[in-house]
Write a structure and sequence with these properties.
Blueprint lengths: L13 H22 L11 H33 L19 E6 L3 E9 L6 H10 L2 E11 L2 E10 L8 H13 L2
Antiparallel strand pairs: 1-2, 2-4, 3-4
Helix pairs in contact: 1-2, 3-4
Length: 180
Protein backbone atom coordinates (compact mmCIF):
# COMPACT_ATOMS: atom_id res chain seq x y z
CA UNK A 1 0.00 0.00 0.00
CA UNK A 2 1.27 3.49 -0.84
CA UNK A 3 1.65 6.22 1.74
CA UNK A 4 -0.59 8.59 -0.22
CA UNK A 5 -3.67 6.40 0.37
CA UNK A 6 -4.06 5.39 -3.27
CA UNK A 7 -3.66 1.70 -2.56
CA UNK A 8 -6.22 -0.91 -3.56
CA UNK A 9 -7.97 -1.00 -0.17
CA UNK A 10 -8.82 2.73 -0.06
CA UNK A 11 -10.17 2.96 -3.58
CA UNK A 12 -13.79 1.82 -4.06
CA UNK A 13 -13.98 -1.35 -6.10
CA UNK A 14 -15.52 -0.54 -9.49
CA UNK A 15 -17.31 -3.86 -9.57
CA UNK A 16 -18.89 -3.23 -6.17
CA UNK A 17 -19.92 0.30 -7.15
CA UNK A 18 -21.51 -0.98 -10.37
CA UNK A 19 -23.25 -3.84 -8.52
CA UNK A 20 -24.69 -1.34 -6.02
CA UNK A 21 -25.86 0.92 -8.86
CA UNK A 22 -27.58 -2.02 -10.62
CA UNK A 23 -29.24 -3.13 -7.38
CA UNK A 24 -30.45 0.43 -6.73
CA UNK A 25 -31.88 0.66 -10.27
CA UNK A 26 -33.55 -2.74 -9.87
CA UNK A 27 -35.14 -1.62 -6.59
CA UNK A 28 -36.38 1.61 -8.16
CA UNK A 29 -37.84 -0.29 -11.13
CA UNK A 30 -39.70 -2.63 -8.77
CA UNK A 31 -41.06 0.36 -6.83
CA UNK A 32 -42.22 2.00 -10.06
CA UNK A 33 -43.80 -1.23 -11.31
CA UNK A 34 -45.71 -1.63 -8.05
CA UNK A 35 -47.38 1.75 -8.65
CA UNK A 36 -48.50 0.97 -12.20
CA UNK A 37 -51.83 -0.86 -12.51
CA UNK A 38 -51.68 -3.50 -15.17
CA UNK A 39 -53.34 -6.82 -15.56
CA UNK A 40 -51.04 -9.53 -14.31
CA UNK A 41 -50.08 -12.04 -16.94
CA UNK A 42 -48.40 -15.39 -16.74
CA UNK A 43 -45.35 -13.98 -18.50
CA UNK A 44 -42.58 -12.27 -16.60
CA UNK A 45 -42.48 -8.60 -17.58
CA UNK A 46 -39.00 -7.26 -18.31
CA UNK A 47 -37.75 -4.04 -16.77
CA UNK A 48 -37.90 -2.38 -20.19
CA UNK A 49 -41.55 -3.39 -20.51
CA UNK A 50 -42.23 -2.14 -16.98
CA UNK A 51 -40.71 1.23 -17.86
CA UNK A 52 -42.78 1.32 -21.06
CA UNK A 53 -45.94 0.56 -19.08
CA UNK A 54 -45.02 3.28 -16.60
CA UNK A 55 -44.54 5.83 -19.40
CA UNK A 56 -47.87 4.86 -20.96
CA UNK A 57 -49.64 5.07 -17.61
CA UNK A 58 -48.16 8.50 -16.86
CA UNK A 59 -49.36 9.75 -20.26
CA UNK A 60 -52.81 8.32 -19.49
CA UNK A 61 -52.84 10.11 -16.12
CA UNK A 62 -51.86 13.41 -17.75
CA UNK A 63 -54.72 13.08 -20.24
CA UNK A 64 -57.08 12.17 -17.40
CA UNK A 65 -55.99 15.21 -15.38
CA UNK A 66 -56.59 17.46 -18.38
CA UNK A 67 -60.06 15.95 -18.90
CA UNK A 68 -60.96 16.33 -15.22
CA UNK A 69 -59.72 19.92 -15.18
CA UNK A 70 -61.97 20.66 -18.17
CA UNK A 71 -64.91 18.98 -16.41
CA UNK A 72 -64.16 21.02 -13.30
CA UNK A 73 -64.00 24.25 -15.33
CA UNK A 74 -67.31 23.49 -17.03
CA UNK A 75 -68.93 22.61 -13.72
CA UNK A 76 -67.77 25.81 -12.05
CA UNK A 77 -68.80 27.90 -15.06
CA UNK A 78 -72.27 26.41 -14.90
CA UNK A 79 -72.77 27.68 -11.35
CA UNK A 80 -71.54 31.22 -12.02
CA UNK A 81 -74.06 33.71 -13.42
CA UNK A 82 -73.26 35.22 -16.80
CA UNK A 83 -71.65 38.65 -16.63
CA UNK A 84 -74.36 40.01 -18.93
CA UNK A 85 -77.21 38.96 -16.64
CA UNK A 86 -78.19 40.49 -13.36
CA UNK A 87 -78.10 38.31 -10.27
CA UNK A 88 -81.87 38.20 -9.96
CA UNK A 89 -82.49 36.96 -13.50
CA UNK A 90 -79.56 34.58 -13.78
CA UNK A 91 -80.48 30.92 -13.72
CA UNK A 92 -77.26 29.01 -14.11
CA UNK A 93 -77.28 25.74 -15.96
CA UNK A 94 -75.98 22.98 -13.73
CA UNK A 95 -75.10 19.35 -13.95
CA UNK A 96 -77.59 16.85 -12.68
CA UNK A 97 -76.12 16.15 -9.27
CA UNK A 98 -74.77 13.91 -7.97
CA UNK A 99 -72.44 12.67 -10.72
CA UNK A 100 -70.71 9.30 -10.30
CA UNK A 101 -67.91 8.20 -12.59
CA UNK A 102 -66.22 4.86 -11.97
CA UNK A 103 -63.32 3.61 -14.06
CA UNK A 104 -61.97 0.10 -13.83
CA UNK A 105 -58.32 -0.32 -14.87
CA UNK A 106 -57.86 -3.98 -14.14
CA UNK A 107 -56.58 -4.15 -10.59
CA UNK A 108 -57.27 -0.46 -9.84
CA UNK A 109 -60.36 1.73 -9.64
CA UNK A 110 -60.79 5.45 -10.08
CA UNK A 111 -63.94 6.98 -8.61
CA UNK A 112 -65.06 10.57 -9.23
CA UNK A 113 -68.08 11.96 -7.38
CA UNK A 114 -69.50 15.43 -7.88
CA UNK A 115 -72.15 16.47 -5.39
CA UNK A 116 -73.82 19.63 -4.23
CA UNK A 117 -73.23 21.11 -0.81
CA UNK A 118 -76.75 20.26 0.31
CA UNK A 119 -76.43 16.61 -0.82
CA UNK A 120 -73.38 15.86 1.22
CA UNK A 121 -72.37 12.47 2.56
CA UNK A 122 -69.19 11.52 4.30
CA UNK A 123 -66.22 10.31 2.33
CA UNK A 124 -65.63 7.53 4.83
CA UNK A 125 -68.95 5.97 3.77
CA UNK A 126 -67.68 5.74 0.19
CA UNK A 127 -64.31 4.39 1.35
CA UNK A 128 -66.13 1.82 3.47
CA UNK A 129 -68.07 0.59 0.42
CA UNK A 130 -64.87 0.24 -1.59
CA UNK A 131 -63.16 -1.68 1.20
CA UNK A 132 -66.15 -3.97 1.73
CA UNK A 133 -66.07 -4.84 -1.98
CA UNK A 134 -62.40 -5.83 -1.88
CA UNK A 135 -60.57 -2.61 -2.74
CA UNK A 136 -57.92 -0.78 -0.78
CA UNK A 137 -58.09 3.01 -1.10
CA UNK A 138 -54.70 4.37 -2.14
CA UNK A 139 -55.64 8.05 -2.20
CA UNK A 140 -58.72 10.15 -1.58
CA UNK A 141 -59.26 13.87 -1.90
CA UNK A 142 -62.01 16.42 -2.30
CA UNK A 143 -62.36 20.08 -3.14
CA UNK A 144 -65.26 22.49 -2.96
CA UNK A 145 -65.77 24.84 -5.87
CA UNK A 146 -68.81 26.94 -6.67
CA UNK A 147 -71.26 25.08 -4.46
CA UNK A 148 -70.09 21.65 -5.61
CA UNK A 149 -67.91 19.06 -3.95
CA UNK A 150 -65.52 17.11 -6.16
CA UNK A 151 -64.45 13.78 -4.62
CA UNK A 152 -61.63 11.77 -6.19
CA UNK A 153 -60.66 8.31 -4.97
CA UNK A 154 -58.10 5.85 -6.27
CA UNK A 155 -58.17 2.25 -5.06
CA UNK A 156 -56.50 -1.05 -5.86
CA UNK A 157 -57.83 -4.55 -5.48
CA UNK A 158 -56.64 -6.17 -2.26
CA UNK A 159 -56.24 -9.43 -4.18
CA UNK A 160 -55.28 -8.74 -7.78
CA UNK A 161 -56.31 -12.25 -8.83
CA UNK A 162 -59.84 -11.69 -7.55
CA UNK A 163 -60.23 -8.01 -8.45
CA UNK A 164 -63.17 -5.80 -7.52
CA UNK A 165 -66.72 -6.08 -8.85
CA UNK A 166 -67.14 -2.51 -10.10
CA UNK A 167 -70.82 -2.88 -10.98
CA UNK A 168 -71.54 -3.79 -7.36
CA UNK A 169 -69.47 -0.82 -6.13
CA UNK A 170 -71.34 1.50 -8.51
CA UNK A 171 -74.74 0.19 -7.36
CA UNK A 172 -73.89 0.59 -3.69
CA UNK A 173 -72.60 4.14 -4.19
CA UNK A 174 -75.78 4.99 -6.13
CA UNK A 175 -77.82 3.67 -3.19
CA UNK A 176 -75.77 5.74 -0.76
CA UNK A 177 -76.06 9.04 -2.60
CA UNK A 178 -79.75 8.78 -3.52
CA UNK A 179 -80.65 9.19 0.16
CA UNK A 180 -78.72 12.44 0.50
Amino acid sequence: MNNDGSGPSSKPDRKAVERKRRNDMKTLCFQLASLIPFKPSKEIVSQQDQLGLAATYIKHLRERIDKLNKMKEEATKSTEPSSRMTETTATPVSLSLPVVELRDSGSSIELILITGLNKNFTLDQVISILEQEGAEVVSASFSTIGGKIFHSLHAQAKLSRVGVETTRVWQRIQELIKYY
